[in-house]
Amino acid sequence: MIPVPLSWTLAAAVASVGATILSYEGVPFLIDGRVARQYEAGRLVERQIWEELRRREAAAREAERLQAQSKIDSIESEYWRQRQLQSFRITELENALAAEPEAPSACACPPAISERLRNALDAAGR
C-alpha cells in the first residue's frame, strides 16, 4: 500500500462531500437548489390546502349563521304577530267595557259582567 499524506485524504473527503452537495443541491450559494425548490413547492401546496379548508369552514359558518338568522326572524315575526293580536284583543275589551250598560238589569241577580265582556276577557287572557 502506498502511503497517502493526510492532506490528500482530507482534500479527497472535502471534494467528495462537495461533489455530493453540488450534485444533490445544485449550487446552493448562488441559486436555490433542488431541496429549496421542493421545500417551497411543498409549502405552497400546504398553504393552498389550508386556504381551501378555511374557505370551506367560512362557508359552513355562513350557512349556519343564515340558518340561525332565519330561525330568529321567524320567532320575531311570530312574536310581533302575537303582540298585534293581543293589541286587538285589548282594544276589543276596551270597546266592550265602553259598551257595558249602565242601567240595572230586571233580573233579581244580574251577572257581574256582560257575556260580551266576559268573552273578550277570556280571549285577551287577562
Describe this structure in words.
- The chain is mainly α and 126 residues long.
- The chain has a domain at 30-100 and 111-124.
- Helix content is 75%, strand content 0%.
- It has 3 helices and no strands.
- The protein has helices at residues 6-25, 34-98, 115-124.
- α2 (34-98) packs antiparallel against α3 (115-124).
- It is rod-shaped.
- The mean pLDDT is 81.
Largest β-sheet summary: none
Give the helix/strand class: mainly alpha
| β-sheet strand percentage | under 5%
Averaged pLDDT, please?
81
**Which value, in Å, is the CA radius of gyration?**
45 Å
Oligomer: single chain
Order of helices and strands: HHH
Q: In whole angstroms, how far apart are the ends? A: 117 Å
Number of helices: 3
List unreliable stretches of 5+ residues.
Answer: none
Shape: rod-shaped
Number of strands: 0
Helicity, in percent? over 70%
